[in-house]
Specification:
The chain is mainly α. The chain is built from ten helices and no strands.
Length: about 260
């Protein structure tokens, strides 16, 4: 376990050395600040926005950028080792290929969770600085936090998909392209499949977890796309899809010849 944790730490150091996370967070900070200032200086918008509404409205907007960052992160983590020729040095270590692969994946998950937490806190802090502590309506801090939490399974699955495609194809461009396409069009395409064909078991119909929340501020009046679906059902299905993708990639990576 200690060796595996050391591998994860090493992978996080690699990610930080490329400055991708820093640039992403700085970009998001500028975006949050710019939108916040725009809301502050426009009289009509300033009167309708408080810090909780601001943080909540930014959740879905920032989730798109977090998904794009996760796709690139997942695609490059293993591909860069092959491109730079460092994969041979990595495999010389007295650890299994499975441990190496899972350490990379776990490091990606840790970085994404940190980025999501940072963005949530940044939105709340910037909202407080610009709009003060006043509140209007029924929106609470708990609802805002749940809004950010509900987006995480979607982001983590798309990262897993990108990680999987890059591992099989050894092409980051192909992985990024396919992952972005499926992220944008997956739910629309799979919604066309009739329920009798098992549409509720397709992952893209299960990624929007907000539909299961009883609070209309979160579900937006939208219900689950098919009968028989529940929060537990969708979470379990996401877990099974992620496990299956990782299992297949581990098998392929274990058998792959590295020259």
């Amino acid at each position: 376990m200690t060796r595996f944790l050391a591998l994860i730490q090493n992978e996080i150091i690699k990610i930080n050395s490329k400055k991708q996370l820093i640039f992403f967070l700085l970009f998001c900070l500028l975006l949050i600040g710019g939108i916040g200032i725009a809301n502050r200086i426009v009289p009509d918008m300033r009167a309708a926005v408080d810090y909780l509404k601001f943080a909540n409205s930014m959740a879905s907007f920032l989730a798109v950028f977090l998904v794009l960052f996760a796709i690139v992160l997942g695609a490059q983590s293993l591909y860069d080792e092959f491109k730079d020729g460092t994969i041979k040095q990595l495999l010389l270590r007295p650890v299994s290929r499975t441990s190496i692969l899972l350490s990379k994946y776990t490091a990606n998950v840790v970085v994404i969770l940190f980025a999501a937490l940072f963005l949530c806190v940044a939105c709340a802090v910037i909202g407080l600085l610009l709009f003060g502590t006043g509140r209007s309506g029924t929106l609470t801090l708990g609802v805002v936090c749940k809004s950010y939490l509900y987006s995480l399974p979607d982001v983590l699955f798309i990262m897993t998909l990108s990680f999987f495609i890059a591992g099989l194809s050894k092409s980051s461009a192909l992985s990024i392209t396919i992952s972005i396409f499926l992220y944008l069009a997956g739910e629309a395409l799979t919604s066309l499949i009739p329920q009798k064909w098992g549409a509720k078991y397709i992952i893209f119909n299960n990624l929007n977890l907000k539909v299961y929340d009883q609070n209309p501020l979160l579900n937006g009046g939208i219900e689950a796309p098919f009968s028989g679906m529940s929060f537990g059902f969708s979470i379990m299905l996401i877990f099974l899809y992620v496990a299956a993708l990782l299992f297949i990639e581990i098998i392929v990576f274990e058998k792959r010849d590295v020259y």
